[in-house]
Write a structure and sequence with these properties.
- This protein is of the alpha/beta class.
- The protein is about 40% helix and about 15% strand.
- The chain has ten helices and eight strands.
- The strands form two sheets. It has a five-stranded parallel β-sheet with strand order 2-6-1-7-8, sandwiched between helices.
- Helix 2 packs across helix 8.
- The chain is globular and about 80 Å long.
């Protein structure tokens, strides 16, 4: 059983050093990807609920229609095709511009794009940023933010196929299901590119996989990075003073 890491109880020591040096914590990007049906959005919602003062997500623009349980501005900004193109032409989208239409994730004419300033678009008061993307979004974000942490969520093969089949009668035609299966196959093939692979092996209960991702985030917060200069926060002459007293 994976122990829950209570990240919000106290700042990690490395972050204390960065705060004392810079006065603020730079944003850390955690990229989450995986095949359709493995519970990515449910997992991210739980992470955000567990750490409301620390974590936020990058919201993606899309031309698709919202599902019954979706609210514009939470996970996606739902816009018309014309609005999407206007934003692209104004340079406000990362994956679309005057030359690029946008990212057609599932091959069904629905377009997606993160904001042009992916990190800058997030809550300035929160420094742990989560992005839910596909493998192409992961590659793009890794190019832009080389220090990002990439996490691939999947399920045991038999369970993964069962989850994909379970969606067929809900909202998808057989053709769309075939496209999603092809996408899942491509994503699984690319899993070796990620820093971590986490298995969601339960139906409905995501507590263990959330705890595993929290452990990854906690470890990343302790990683030595820009601004973590331990020597600079030790008072000048402190070591010599100790020696003088010995």
């Amino acid at each position: 059983m994976i122990r829950q890491v209570k990240m919000s109880e106290a700042l990690v020591s490395v972050e204390h050093i960065i705060l004392s040096m810079k006065g603020h914590l730079p944003k850390q990007l955690f990229v989450i990807a995986g095949p359709s049906g493995v519970g990515k959005n449910t997992i991210i919602k739980r992470l955000l609920a567990n750490h409301p003062d620390l974590a936020c997500r990058i919201r993606t623009y899309t031309t698709r229609e919202p599902r019954d349980d979706e609210v514009s501005g939470e996970q996606y900004f739902f816009v018309s095709y014309d609005e999407f193109r206007r934003l692209a032409e104004e340079g406000k989208l990362l994956e679309a511009d005057t030359a690029r239409e946008g990212h057609n994730v599932y091959g069904n004419k629905d377009l997606y794009s993160m904001p042009a300033d992916a990190l800058g678009s997030t809550d300035p008061e929160k420094h742990l940023v989560i992005a839910e993307v596909d493998i192409y979004g992961t590659r793009l974000l890794r190019t832009l933010y080389p220090d990002c942490v990439t996490i691939f969520i999947t399920a045991p093969p038999a369970m993964l196929l069962e989850r994909l089949r379970g969606r067929e009668g809900e909202r998808m035609s057989r053709e769309e299901m075939a496209r999603r299966i092809d996408t899942a196959r491509e994503q699984v093939r690319a899993a070796k590119e990620y820093d971590y692979i986490v298995f969601n092996a339960t139906q409905g209960d995501v507590a263990e996989v959330v705890a595993a991702i929290e452990a990854i985030i906690y470890a990343a917060r302790m990683r030595v990075r820009l601004g973590a200069d331990l020597e600079a926060v030790i008072p000048a002459g402190a070591f010599d003073a100790i020696l003088a007293k010995s």
